[in-house]
Specification:
With 318 residues, the chain is mostly helical. It has two domains: 25-181, Tetracycline Repressor, domain 2; 183-318. It has helices at 10-14, 24-32, 36-52, 59-83, 85-88, 106-127, 130-151, 158-162, 169-178, 183-206, 208-214, 219-223, 225-243, 245-248, 254-276, 290-308, 312-315. Helix 3 (36-52) runs antiparallel to helix 4 and helix 4 (59-83) packs parallel to helix 7 (130-151). The radius of gyration is 22 Å and the shape is globular.
Amino acid sequence: MSGTATTPGQGARASLPTAGTPDLSEVGDWIALLKPRVMYLVVFAGLIGLLMAPGGLHPVLAATAILCIALGAGGAGAINMWYDRDIDAVMRRTARRPVPAGRIEPGAALGFGVGLSVASVVILGLATNGVAAASLAFSIAFYVFVYTMWLKRRTPQNIVIGGAAGAFPPIVGWASVTGGVSLEPLVLFAIIFMWTPPHFWALSLWAHADYERAGVPMLPVASGARATRLQILLYTLALVPLSLAPWALGFAGPAYAVAATLLGLRFLWHAWRVWREPQDALGRSLANDAAAKKTFRYSLLYLAALFAALPLDRLVPL
């Protein structure tokens, strides 16, 4: 016989992680605490705010500012998962998150979130200025204390008011460069603020059973599916002209205006499909909420494409 001899179980032992070898599944759980899918849009909106700001920032400081926005958003997400672990455990969509599933201890998640949040604010203040750091701190506090701990479990307007937390990144990015806040980042704030309800209500239409089971008064649970469909349409109708404000105010050009119009008309078409989807007498979908699911997915693409179009005129002058 050729080759080296092995004792029973040697092959099995060789496949086990040795001391000091990181468990990638555990690393993935800590990353999941940061809500990375939410973080992508937050970071991108902050980046656009930074790029649109007059003046400039050293590339290292700009990268630090974007990293701090990401850490702040991730820290807030981890605190949210710590606080919401009881309702996450009874919702199918969230039951496998690291804290309710028991893979990360609640105290560890809280410490992780607080540590990241504090570090992000301190580093941003040292790297850029106090206005940017204060804006980031306020957005984190608003998401944790106003939305997560106060509004979410008490009112169907939770996502309307609480959506302000996710609208702050362009202000933080802008302030990182300028050291102040002006009309332009406030307009970008308003666009995200108006986008959040139709985006999130589209999700809550097809996840309403989860929210009902957890006792969270999302609009479909509190007011019914038909009222939610109407609100999605009305907010989208308000969002489309608002999205043209950067062009109307002169800090984005005609290429942006064309992109915003086309993207907005598509969003309106999706919202109309949600309103007109086959329903029962209570407004509940007879088509497995297909239109709401498509609207939710498109809303993510919409916001990313809309903000990507803001600096478009610098590359494609018309």
